[in-house]
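Dear support,

I submitted the protein below through the web form. The confirmation email said the job was done, but the results page showed an empty box. After a refresh the structure appeared. I'm attaching both so you can tell me whether what I see now is the final result or a partial one.
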Amino acid sequence: MTIEVRVPQLPESVADATLVSWHKQPGEAVARDENLVDLETDKVVLEVPAPMAGVISEIKFKDGATVTSGQLLALIEEAATVPGASAPAVMAPADGAAAPAQDAVRAAAPGAATPGAATAEAGGKLSPAAKRVAEENKLDPKSLVGSGRDGRVSKSDVVNYLATKDAPAAAKSSAVPAPAPVAPPAPVTQPAVTQPAATPPVAREPASAPPAAPTAPKPSLKGSRAEQRVPMTRLRARIAERMVQAQATQALLTSFNEVDLHLVNELRARYKEAFEKQHGVKLGFMSFFTKACVEALRKFPAVNASVENNDIVYHDYFDVGVAVSTDRGLIVPILRDADQLSFAEIEKSIGNFAARARAGSITMEELTGGTFTITNGGVFGSLLSTPIVNSPQSAILGMHKIQERPVAVDGQVVVRPMMYIALTYDHRIIDGREAVQFLVTVKQCLEDPARMVLGI
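What the results page shows now:
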């Protein structure tokens, strides 16, 4: 029986996708739910699982092709499912690989030993993608709980488990081991040469002779001057398009302020153990900044608004985007109704977003919308920057590195953990007065966290 593998239904805002890479080739056996191919859209990478166990008989598109919803990607010949039954005939692929296909069918038949089968049984029915992520993060398969049929553990189950354990999912898997140090070659000792007893005098150039003309230095042969041209990924091209669009269509301006975070640090140090014990997540800085921004957005609704044609759209809700850096580029998942979330819920959501974004399992719906964005360049060491607005939003807050500096407090010079904060905003609808007062409100909330509790 021939099974068709088609492009899944793409989100409404996505017209097509790019076929990144096939994980299987014609003639190879596949298991049910095993990832066959990765499809890259403007924001996320979609995995296309095998609908049935069998052997790939034909692939319709090569890597790099552009596909749309419902297009036929590949054909799979279903493997035998009745014990003792002979393997069904398999259609030979276009390249003539009929023999490998038949061998793969026999290998997939019941009773045939397959690599990793014992591990899958011990792990409690892990899907191939889940098994790969679990092995990369050195997880015990027995500790994973599956949400699929018959307790099957999917990739999303593993990612959610990593998020709850505050593990940097998929970060280790992309790390390249450093090359082993190579010992320098032993120095070669030149044999001593005995000078003859009588050495003829060496003729010297007359003092009046002109100096030798300088010669051009020879070009260095060290290092490579090779060039490599690669196409932009869909995500990188989309980022470039959005950034250029924001610069071209908005009147962007940036205002700065600085924040003394010593009270936030004291609060975190005092309650971090109890907070983590009760909520199962660490108390970080992002929850404080998110809460502070929500308080400032309440007071200055224009910063939470957007422009549509000649209209200003004011939003009565606070969907705050949090920028997350991945190997593929920057994405911005959304904290829906951030004003209704507790500190613990914000920290859990951000940790979950970060883990799933790096594992490539975040959904398009989680990246769509948003009324305001926070980005933290301080995690990479940035001391000051001017972030670009995530259009069609009208403002973005930039966090930076916390650095101890001497500051004057009540006539005394003290050393405090200071951070520069930046607000880039669309000057078409946000005046400088509102932008500056927005930053002052964020500063006040962070320098006196009780304000966020009391709502003042």
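Response: this is the final, complete result; the empty box was a page-load delay. The radius of gyration is 31 Å.
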